[in-house]
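Researcher: Here's my situation. A collaborator sent me these components and asked whether they could plausibly form a single complex. I don't have experimental data yet, so a predicted model of the whole assembly would be a useful starting point for our discussion.
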Amino acid sequence: MISAALLFAFACYTLGLIFNLWRITRGPDAADRILALDTMVINVIALLILYGILEGTAVYYEASMLVAMVGFVSTVAYCRFMLRGDIIE
Amino acid sequence: MVVEIIISFFIVLSGIFGLVGSFGLIKLDDTMQRLHAPTKATTLGVGGALIASMLYFLLVKGSFSFHELLITLFLFLTAPITANFIAKAYLAHNATRNDLPETGRDYGWALYDDPPLLNETTDPRGE
């Protein structure tokens, strides 16, 4: 039962990643692309946690934590670049 | 059996809300509306996956771990900051000062005005 639910969730998040890619390619503004990339990072975090349940190991928490940190820093850096034209002043 | 049903419920909930959050990105029309959609994926999508993971490792594997709580805490701390930054970047590129309404406070928009000084004694609007 858990494996069937995991399969359903994997399908949902894969479809979500495809939607995000569509928004990245079509987004009329740079802010849309940043937002879609941020959503992509969140979807990847959820996918990693679910993959950890599927494999039955706790290794993937560290990976998802690292993805969360790198995603936050990259989003803030991109917005900072759009706002000020520079990342570290 | 009951444990499996509960864990599966949270996994399916996480999948549905992750899909809803990403679907909102392509359905909504405006950038400022689109900012609203991924919050579902952040809170209930990742939250459901983390609750399912905690329950699975606690009840099936028999080992309790609080790493998941750290990830939840980190995401809940950073999601408002990124949303604020994205909105600010969008406003800086697509809105002029006249498009924005008055703040109704002593200080104007942080995008255009300097932040208030800490030891300010005079009226900030009276130069």
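Model: Some features of this prediction you could bring to your collaborator: Chain A has a mean pLDDT of 89. Chain A has one domain: 2-84.
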